[in-house]
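Sanity check

After download, print the first record. It should look like this:
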Amino acid sequence: MLKTNSARYSSIGDRIFDMCNYSFMIILIIITLYPFINMFALSFNDANDSIRGDIYFWPREWTIRNYEYVFNESNVFFATFISAARTIVGTIVSVFCTAMLAYAISRPEYKLKKFVSITFIFTMYFSGGLIPNYLLIKELGMLNSFWVYIIPGIIGVFNLIVIRSFMEGLPEGIMESAKMDGAGDLTTFVRIVLPLTVPALATVSLFVAVYQWNSWFDVFLYNSSRHNLSTLQYELMKILSTSNTSTSAADQYANAQGNVQMVTPTSIRATMTIVASVPIIMVYPFLQKYFVKGMVVGGVKG
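Expected structure tokens:
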């Protein structure tokens, strides 16, 4: 039997299939990573040299002038702090509140679970529009405030479905045992359900964190006049807009030593891509082991 299996797996057809499969995966990896690698190369390449083109995987003339230009903007560092704060606070609050609602509508004894679920799903397809939403935010007194980043999107319907589906797959006997021991709904939720739902929570946390980190349009709508509430993405968008409206192919700026340096819209765009992407990319490895499991198990009953 072992000899037969060994012969089957070492046949010419299997080897050709493995070779084609590996080649396809390598090409797919290169295609996926190339845009980011190219942006990395352009961000560390001299702006004047970048105009010549032909920069693909590696900088031709190394420099950090592009990063000096971006970080010399006075509000970038504080905007980074605001982005980090809204990402951390927004993710924690959103995931916890979504998980509480998901737990409620996952319980079979809750009579209105179907009505509540349909009501939330309805909001995925229909909304009041931009102007009514702005007027609502204004009437709630959240204009020019930090909480406008947190409260309006506190419940994500897709995230709710993922967590609810995961909770519905938990053994019912665990909850019944907790109730027999005198645990209430809050105790059962915090001490039993949440630890068992970590894969789904990690998956949703990644979704929410990426959204919070990349969001800039809400800053433009609600907090554009408050520089102390500006986010990194909004500041980078303003830098990009300024560079794109430049009348020259390259802009000059003075560095800390007073020397005149050159930057171009292409170099700034590449630098901004790296600055905005690296922090959120660093979070992914810590959630990767939960991501696939959370998506597969949470989507079984969705």
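If your output differs, re-run the checksum step. Summary of this record's structure: The first strand starts at residue 251 and ends at 254.
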